[in-house]
Write a structure and sequence with these properties.
The chain is of the alpha+beta class. About 25% of the residues lie in helices and about 25% in strands. The protein binds flavin-adenine dinucleotide.
């Protein structure tokens, strides 16, 4: 009979790893299981933007605390607080920007509207057709490709076991918890945390629960090394662009443009039409990249539910199975909401409320 863990976290992205660390801090003997490597999913391929300006108003308290977590993780995750500008190029975009940023500032984010001359002085290479701009000094970025190695080291330090290459294919209840089955081995745990990102739907289906999880297929691109063009994180009022230039000179371009594929089929593919529009918007905002070479474009799967709020609580119908995922801007919020989830499972009072996965989902526009 193999050892029984207090809890198994299925999915070793930022959510599963951050929760496992908190569970360890609370004295739970946990194991993290991932079908591939830790941080190989969305948490390891995302654009790395840590921007309060692109977070939903209701999630602002979580994002602000998420930023504090990133700051404390520091160089080990390539954290840089650069400040960030969000730009509007038409009157309609300016109206959108002003209204959204007002609400976000009311929710606690230190966001201010700035004049064109302030913007030009800070970022002279940006297009000069800007109608309105906002600034947040807290914005910045981290290097998502360091997620796996960062959490591997932290889990080891805390004595938390993890198994990579453990694809969960079945979960069966037994008298003292659950038997979790991969192709060639099993693990036993008293409780489960489902933290499988865009694969949450298929994972929950193993337990006969149908979650309304959908996957978005976001695209990110990186350019060759360029002379320094911008020092801040740059966004667009529509939310369709994020840009940051790394110390190496390469520029990372994202904005949630959609590729093709499904999480079950593999890594997803870049869609050339979508990519072209993404790059055209980047060039519109930063004309100096007109002739820059794109070295690589890739996609990753981001999970969401119809109301675009997180799933963070008990799996409907189960007392000892929990879910954490579908967090919009989940890389930013992950280290914090993972801690909250850990506290919830440890039956501690959580600092902020969680998001009941059994709620009625009201469809909203993303
Ligand atoms: C391209 C892209 C760009 C993004 N840019 C940003 C950004 O700039 N800023 C930001 O804040 N957010 C961004 N996001 C969102 C953010 O990356 C995600 O919200 C966050 O990483 C989700 O973390 P997670 O742990 O829930 O999921 P994941 O990181 O996807 O982790 C889920 C893990 O579960 C594992 N798994 C799945 N099924 C099984 C199974 N059956 N058995 C075992 N393991 C399994 C997977 O291998 C994976 O490692 C972006 C997302 C994408 C895809």
């Amino acid at each position: 009979m193999n050892k029984i863990y207090d809890i198994a976290c299925i999915g070793g992205g930022i959510m599963g790893c951050a929760a496992a660390l908190q569970l360890a801090e609370g004295g739970m003997n946990s194991i993290v299981l991932d079908q591939g490597d830790l941080g190989q999913g969305a948490s390891g391929v995302n654009a790395g933007t840590l921007s309060l300006q692109i977070k939903r108003v209701k999630l602002m308290p979580y994002a602000i605390r998420g930023h504090q977590e990133w700051e404390s993780m520091g160089d080990a995750v390539g954290f840089k607080k650069t400040g960030g500008y969000t730009l509007a190029f038409t009157d309609h975009e300016a109206e959108l920007l002003q209204e959204r940023m007002r609400l976000k500032a009311e929710a606690g984010a230190p966001i201010e509207l700035v004049s064109n001359s302030v913007l030009r002085e800070a970022e002279p290479q940006l297009a000069d057709r800007v109608v309105a701009a906002s600034y947040c000094a807290e914005d910045g970025y981290s290097n998502s490709s360091l997620t796996g190695q960062f959490y591997r080291a932290r889990l080891k330090e805390q004595g938390v076991q993890y198994r990579e290459g453990f694809k969960v294919l079945g979960v069966e209840a037994c008298n003292d918890g659950y038997v979790i089955r991969s192709a060639n081995t099993t693990v036993r745990a008293r409780k489960l945390l489902l933290s499988a990102g865009a694969w949450l739907k298929s994972l929950a289906a193993l337990m006969d629960v149908d979650l309304p999880v959908q996957a978005r297929i976001n695209t990110v691109s990186v350019t060759q090394r360029l002379p320094m063009l911008t020092r801040s994180v740059i966004g667009h009022a529509t939310g369709l662009l994020t840009m940051k230039q790394k110390a190496s000179g390469s520029l990372l371009i994202g904005g949630g443009w959609q590729g093709r594929g499904t999480p079950e089929q593999g890594r997803g593919q870049v869609d050339v039409h979508s990519l072209r529009s993404n790059l055209a918007l980047a060039r519109h905002v930063l004309p100096a990249i007109e002739n820059a070479q794109i070295l690589r474009s890739w996609t990753g799967f981001e999970a969401n539910v119809p109301d675009f709020y997180p799933l963070a609580g008990k799996l409907p119908g189960y007392e000892d199975v929990f879910i954490l995922g579908c967090v919009r801007g989940g890389y930013t919020i992950g280290p914090y909401i993972g801690k909250l989830m850990g506290d919830y499972i440890l039956e501690r009072k959580t600092e902020l409320p969680l998001f009941d996965p059994g709620r009625d989902f009201v469809e909203v526009v993303a």
